Amino acid sequence: MRVTNSMMVSTYLSDLNRNAYRLNTYQSQLATGRRMVRLSDDPVGAINSLRSREKLAKIEQYQYNVEQAQTWLTQTETAVMDLNTIAQRAYELSVQAGSGTYTVNEKLAIQKEIEQLMKQTLSTANATLGDKYLFGGYNFTSEPFTTDSEGNLIYNGKRMVPELPADPTDPAQLAAYHAALADVEAFSEDQRAQTVQYEIGKSNYITVSVPGVDVMGKSPNDLYTILKDFSSYLEMDDATGENGIQGVITKLQDCQKEILATAAELGGRQNRLDLAANRYEADYINYSAIRSEVEDVDQEETIMQYMMAQAVYNASLAVGSKVIQPSLVDFLD
Amino acid sequence: MRSTFYGLDIAKSGLFAAQKGIDVTGHNISNANTTGYTRQRLIQSAVDPASYDQRFLPVQKAAVGGGVTVKYVDQIRDVFLDRQFRNESAVYGLWSTYESGLTRVEDLFNGTEDTGIASGLSALYSALQELSQNPGDKEFMTAVRQEAIKLTETFDHVYSQLLETQNDYNEQIAITVSEFNDIARTISEYNVEIYRYEQTGNNANDLRDKRNLLLDTLAGMADITYSEDADGKLSVFIGGDTLISHNTYNELYCDADTVNPLPGETNMLYTIKWGDASGAPVSLTGGSIAGMLKLRDGDAVDNQGIPYYVQQINTLAEAIVKEFNAVHQDGWTYPTDEDPDIVTGDPVSKTGVNFFEPVGADFNASKMSLSADVLKSVFNIASSDEQIILGSTDENTGNNVNNLTKIINLFNSDELSEVTGVNNLQGYYRSFIAELAVEVRHAGNMVEMKDALVSSIDTQRTSVSGVSLDEEMTNLIQYQHSYSAASRVINTMDEMLDVLINRTGMVGR
To answer: CA–CA distance from A266 to each of A212, A271, B295 (Å)?
Structure first.
């Protein structure tokens, strides 16, 4: 092949340019710490990186959801255990009061404590997370448990224990009482359906709420009503009172069992959340690794390549200054 | 019998030829760096002995030629390489224009960055999740609305950038066509000059160089073919139609006669037509103009121009609007004073409310916006799947997040069907990005390959036609020596004649 001067210059220039370009590529990779600057640098990698970013965003969201669910459950568990403590104390008091050895005054002292426990029960059942009520079903904004003027338990505006008929023999009154009971039952059923669920995975929901209507036990055998009855039995210093207190003992035992069952279920849910949290932690690391593999620069390798590119570039500059200059002109006199 | 001064004539012709040779060499050396310059060569030949064609002269024994004659100055050029170079230039022009356009599109979708549609979708997803944990909370509803507005703005931004790019190429087509016409006109002018000059029997080498350079440029812009007839008249064609016929040329012109076919757009696009009476459209399959046309008009999987990507964005936007609305309409809003019942004036839970403004005629991604209801009040985001009644009691009936959960599921679902072709919102976006990235890479590879081919042909061309200073210096020495040698011959003749004239006939003096 015939070699001409302009050919040498242009070939040299395009080669030099390519070397400079390579040098620049590694330089920008090192400066940004990113391997891929454009999608088309590595289409498959770009998709993997997009997918892992999307996954990471979802995992982060799920991790956040799990955390929130854990907070909710922890708060719920505390409240439920508090209720259990109250039930336990009431049980102890009922056993003492039912032993038949206590005087009226002693019973009245117990009654004072029971009244305190009743207040405590209400405030515990109205526990909040931030400014949201935990046991209100879909009612997050106002106290779910209140009492009317006679001290009857009201849940979300509904009196939970209907008035006993004044005359149990009157069929009309009896029918009205049963209707009221059925109404409360229907209401409770509706309230139980009001659950709060958090998404902790793709179409994987965990119920964080416990049915508020049952948290103190099912009415009329709920803790508050039992305590209220207990309190009234303590005032009666007669056989009805004695029998009533005996009834209260068993009722409290059953109620405590129910509360503990709720607590056990909450524990189970906590375990499920812990498992999910661990899994997401592992997933997060995996997807971060995938993303990093696609997007990030392998420092050692890139520095090596950069050094090599630099050496080649310097060499081509050196060669250029020798090749371009001389021609026959330089050797003629 | 030889004439007395015959030898002087021979030597003189040698002197003249050497001088001419040095001139040509000088011209070559001076133009060593001139773009498009083709090296020239002196064509000389020996002068036949006088008697060869003189019919009535006696044939001489040992006839000697009459020295050298300069025939013409030739240029050394390989027309086959020219043709190859120009064919490949057209392909290269197409791909390099296409690639640079696609790179601009790619920049808009740089999905590995933390901005853009992908992250907009993720942000909306997170906001919805957080709202689902805090139903009826204005703060979180506002966050959802803001993220949704951001998403529509991102769509609008990407869309208008794409449209702007399309418009740029439309304008650039007009500019390039006028440049093209200018070159065609200049070539036809050169044609006339070259033809006139060469009729005198000389080669118009330098004019041809200039014309060749223009042909190279023209070939990069359109897929031209050309031929030169025996008389040296050059014609240039595009797809069989004549662009230049020796001294005349058929101008191209841009007619803004086509409405942009993209939905909701009304701007006019240029059609390139022949300037003669036929007014027929020009069919271009190569060159940078064809690349721009492909970018401006390409709307199919196997012809991916800007409109194709606009369609993808439109489809995704339409899917988001329709899917969101379909679910959102089933839900119930939170009662609010901000948007009470028209008749009673009381806050009321509503159903059938749209989240986005419904898809109308000529929908495109820039028309994506939130519905008037949601813009009026954030409480019009329908989280619940049953009517919410803010009771006179403490109970809020139906304040659940079941409908919100369904909306969130749109991001996870692989079975969306409302809009054909979009089964998974983020997946659709991803596959579209993949398509774009692969196409850009393909175009990049084509450019690299064609670039290598074109420059290799060009190197071969330079190898044949370029000036080698070493060679020219060698020629220079050669001509210099032949000049000296011819002078020496004259000297010798002179001495011989001196002897003959001044020293003969001295016998007996």
So the answer is: 13, 9, 61
**b/e per residue A240-264 (b: at least 16 CB within 10 A):** ebeebbebbeebbeebbebbbebbe
- Looking at residue B314, its pLDDT comes to 92
Residue A61: its chain B contacts at CB < 8 A? Answer: 125-126, 129
Residue among B136, B394, B455 minimizing CB distance to A142: B394
How far apart (Å, rounded) are the C-alpha atoms in residues A124 and A86? 10
Distance CA B1, CA A310 (A): 77
CA distance B495 to B504: 13
Please give the radius of gyration of chain A, using alpha carbons only, rounded to the nearest integer. 39
The one-character DSSP state at B370 is B
d(CA B327, CA B352): 9
Contact yes or no for B441 and A50 at CB 8 A: no
The CA-based dihedral angle spanning residues B488, B490, B492, B493, taken in that order and rounded to the nearest 10 degrees: 170
Strands (E), B322-480: 389-390, 396-397
A203 reaches B (C-beta below 8 A): yes
The answer to whether residue A158 neighbours chain B at the CB level (below 8 Å) is yes
The C-alpha of A189 sits at a distance from chain B's nearest C-alpha, in angstroms, of 13
3-state secondary structure of B464: helix
Check B433 against A3: CB less than 8 A apart: no
Which three-class secondary structure state does DSSP give residue B441?
helix
According to DSSP, residue B229 is labeled -
B135 contact residues in A (CB cutoff 8 A): 138, 140
ipTM of the modeled complex: 0.74
Which pair of tokens denotes residue B247?
């001294």
Instruction: Please say whether the beta carbons of B381 and B174 come within 8 A.
Output: no
* Average of per-residue pLDDT across A122-126: 91
Across the interface, whether the CB atoms of B469 and A329 are under 8 A apart is answered yes
Tokens (6 digits) for B197: 């000059």
Give the count of beta carbons closer than 10 Å to the beta carbon of residue A20.
14
- B63 phi and psi, to 5 degrees? -70, 135
Which amino acid, one-letter code, is at B76?
Answer: I
Q: A3-19: per-residue pLDDT in tens?
A: 887 788 888 888 899 89
CA A320 to chain CA centroid, Å, is 67
Judged by CB atoms closer than 8 Å, whether chains meet at B118 and A199 is answered as no
Q: Of B462, B474, B475, B477, which to mutate for an interface test with A (greatest number of A Cβ within 10 Å)?
A: B462
Looking at the complex, report in whole angstroms how far the Cα of residue A165 sits from the nearest Cα belonging to chain B.
25
Please state, in angstroms and rounded to a whole number, the distance separating the CA atoms of residues B174 and A326.
Answer: 47
**pLDDT tens-place string over residues B29-88:** 999 888 889 999 999 999 887 665 666 666 666 778 889 999 999 999 999 999 999 999
Contacts of A143 in chain B (CB under 8 A): 394
pTM of the predicted model as reported, rounded to 2 decimal places: 0.81
Q: Taking CB atoms and an 8 Å cutoff, what residues of chain A touch B426? A: 54
In the predicted structure, residue B491 carries a pLDDT above the cut 90: yes
- The residues facing B226 across adjacent strands are B236
Confidence of residue A100 (pLDDT cuts 50, 70, 90): confident
Which of A5, A137, A199 has its CB closest to that of B129?
Answer: A199
Q: Say which of B126, B405, B469 has its CB closest to residue A328.
A: B469
Chain-centre distance of CA A247, in angstroms? Answer: 40
Partner-chain contact A202 B412, CB within 8 Å: yes
What are B424's two structure tokens? 């998974």
In this prediction, residue B52 carries a pLDDT of: 57
The lowest-confidence range among A290-304, B39-53, B353-367, B439-453 is: B39-53
* Chain B residues in contact with A323 (beta carbon < 8 A): none
Helices and strands (DSSP H and E) totals, chain B: 11, 12
Kindly list the residues from chain B whose CB atom is less than 8 angstroms away from the CB atom of residue A2: 463-464, 468
